[in-house]
Design goal:
Helix content is 56%, strand content 0%. It is mostly helical. It has two domains: 31 residues, no CATH class; 53 residues.
């Protein structure tokens, strides 16, 4: 027998068996989940919004750095072409 009892009946489960494996009542034996609280919904919404904002900021930063890189590269190329003519 397993050292883990069934969470619903308290009976010992056979060795190497999880709650749902071999339980004829599964999943009906599990309690129904209560709806999420307002606090949980708000927290999840904040996380999703924060993630979206961070992603947008990261994209904007990446674009800005690429523009700076391009400007520096163009400036260096012009400088090198000017030196080559001299």
């Amino acid at each position: 027998m397993s050292h883990r009892p069934c969470e619903q009946t308290g009976e010992d489960l056979p060795a190497d068996v999880t709650c749902c494996a071999g339980c004829v009542d599964f999943p009906a034996c599990r309690p129904l989940l209560s709806p999420p609280s307002e606090n949980l919904i708000g927290t999840v919404a904040k996380v999703l919004i924060t993630d979206s904002l961070l992603r947008l900021r990261g994209e904007a930063l990446s674009d800005t750095l690429q523009q700076i890189h391009d400007a520096i590269t163009m400036g260096l190329n012009k400088k090198d072409k000017g030196k080559a003519k001299d």
